[in-house]
Amino acid sequence: MKVRIVVDSTTDLPPEIKSRLTVVPLTILFGDQAYVDGITITHQQFYEKLVESDVLPTTSQASPAVFEKVFQKAKAAGESVVVLTLSAKLSGTWQSAMIAAREFDNVHVVDSHSVAIGTGILAQLALEMAERGMSAADIARELERERNNVCIVAMLDTLEYLKRGGRISKTVAFAGSLLSIKPVVSLHNGEIEILGKARGSRQGNNLLVEKIQAAGGVDFDKPLLLGYTGMSDVLLQKYIRDSAFLWADHLVDLPQTIIGSVVGTHAGPGAVAVAFFKGSAKEAAQ
């Protein structure tokens, strides 16, 4: 039986890969103005509004009814389904998918425990498994195992949006801006966690590399994805040059994409992120 891979719109991937998935959109709210993620607002338009807005946007979860329509289409086509959502700690989207799935015996719902490019590399892995002919049940079980090996590490260009979101104080944000502090963060249990701070982008890039190595390095046999927030990838390209030794012996072209609203709201423009499956300590030392 053919397997359909379904994700929500917070999953970030290069367009040529995302086009192979079925995407269920969330709603982005700027005050009273609602936008359908990826349909009535693009990532670029989101960042334009983020910079202009005095309030941080919020997202509204996808409803069970939207998932049910997708599941009905898959059933009519004789397909089984694997649904991969952003972390249940960040949104009720996983719960919506679970509610809709109760009426179907061919649907398997997986909480990615991640978001954005982190969910993206899991979705890409799911596509690869489906192409190898694995069943939906087996893919879901493998995703639940592999999600524990996903790591997202990011460097922020500004502390402003963490301050606006109430995650750091105004005093810390002001001092950080004076000192050109670049925090390096990760996602842990659905929450942004500050791993370290550096003065200037070069030190920040070095710290980003150190955190990747500390995680056990990168498993290059599985999907890898780099991302950026905002309307320009200039800082991402600088990071790629600064960290070339990490990738040079493994990849010719590094997969890259813009990161959407859930991470972008709290990170702000100018963030650089890497999502990868953890390698072994031996690989990290090489």
Please tell me about this protein's structure:
By secondary structure, this protein is of the alpha/beta class. The chain has two domains: 3-147, Rossmann fold (3-Layer(aba) Sandwich), CATH 3.40.50; 150-285, Hypothetical Protein Tm841, Chain: A,domain 3 (2-Layer Sandwich), CATH 3.30.1180. Helices cover 40% and strands 23% of the residues. The chain contains 13 helices and 13 strands. It has helices at residues 15-18, 43-52, 64-76, 93-101, 117-131, 136-146, 160-164, 170-178, 201-214, 234-242, 244-247, 261-267, 281-285; strands spanning 3-8, 22-24, 27-30, 33-36, 58-60, 80-85, 107-111, 150-155, 181-188, 191-199, 225-228, 256-258, 272-277. It has a six-stranded mixed beta sheet, sandwiched between helices. Strands 2-1-6-7 form a four-stranded parallel beta sheet, sandwiched between helices. Helix 3 crosses helix 4 and helix 5 (117-131) runs antiparallel to helix 6 (136-146). It is globular, with a radius of gyration of 19 Å. The termini are far apart. The relative contact order is 0.16.
Please tally the helical runs, counting DSSP H or I stretches of 4 or more residues.
13
Low-confidence stretches: 166-179, 281-286
CATH architecture of the largest domain: 3-Layer(aba) Sandwich
Largest sheet: 6 strands, mixed
Mean pLDDT: 86
Label the overall shape: globular
Structural class, judged by helices and strands?
alpha/beta
Reported by name, the CATH topology of the largest domain is Rossmann fold
Extended strand count: 13
Alpha-carbon Rg, integer: 19 Å
* Helicity level: 40-55%
Our measurement of the CA-to-CA distance between the termini, rounded to an integer number of angstroms, reads: 42 Å
Which CATH class of the largest domain is shown?
Alpha Beta
Kindly estimate the percentage of residues that lie in beta strands according to DSSP. 15-25%
Biggest sheet strand order reads 10-9-8-13-11-12
Oligomer: single chain
Order of helices and strands: EHEEEHEHEHEHHEHHEEHEHHEHEH
Number of separate domains = 2
